[in-house]
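2024-03-11 09:14:02 INFO queue: dequeued item Origin recognition complex subunit 2, len=359
2024-03-11 09:14:02 INFO validating residues
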Amino acid sequence: MPTGAGRGRRRRRRPGGVRPVSTYGAGEDDDEADPSFFELGAKPPPKTTSGAELWHELQAMRDRDRVRVMEAIQERNGAHARPDYDLWFDMLSTGFNVGVHGLGSKRHVVETFADEFLGELPCIIISGYADVFCLSTLLSIIAARVADTSVTRRDPFKSARAIARALDDSQTDMYLVVHNLDGPRFRTPKIQTTLSILASSPRIRVLASIDHCRVPLLWDSATAGAFGFVYVTVDTLLPYISETANADAVLRQRRKKKEGKYDGAPLASVGHIMAVLTNRQNRALRELAVEGGARGLTFEDWREFALVHSEREFKTIVSDLHFHHLLRESKDPDTGALLYTLNVEDAVVQSDIVPWEEQ
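2024-03-11 09:14:37 INFO prediction written
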């Protein structure tokens, strides 16, 4: 039976039915393929390899080789890695807030922009990745250093609006740079709403880096509109070194909390917390450590040690210490009075709280 030139032929299939995938950086001519992606590995893959084979080969590389590969990519793309800082500054100057997102740590590029463009301007930088953050302290700093006004520690929303009015009255512009707006300590509605109130002021320009892909879920429509971000993409491919520096302490705290052993402040944060507390609050912590012991102190004990002079003052200090997760409450089985004990591990009490001296 006569057949045509192409009839009856079957195309040979490659083993496993896998189609070839060109190596990274290959051009039209395979001889011109850029081997820089693989040259730091133990052995470069063949010219034709499957995606699965390439993935397994990369997984087999040692950790330091992976880091060197990522650094090689970053160095090769260095000419294109610097963001358009002039565009960022133009957007901030015209009243827009800038949200920076993308793959990799953006701390370096944001700090570089702040140093080069905002160094001589009123600028405050805060870190959302820190293991401790005090909203009232931030508002007090802005009010004192930039807005030249005073704020209340009890109502952050009212304080933020007061700062915005003071800046508007004085015709003063300021810049607020936020590393990791979606950091673990920043995800509460109170902090996000307070920052959005500041961002909505025409006198406050916000530049914030964002890492989590679902950060808009933190906001309702009013908060998102108040931030008013113009998003720019910056893929640095850099590791999150500073952002994860306290990860071990946080994970250790969470593990002990799950086991029911400890649910206080992160171990690495107590010293930072004491740095922002008042002398009277720190004195209360020290007396709780020295005199309270395992039993704790009642309100009458606080008055006896001259820690407070009124019930209102007592409630204010207790509320602030509770906010930082430094206190634990229990009831005296004999009298029913509330007992207050430190919610901090003994090692931290001896290293940070007991040696404290009033300044």
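2024-03-11 09:14:37 INFO annotate: Residues 196 and 227 are 5 Å apart (CA to CA).
2024-03-11 09:14:38 INFO item closed
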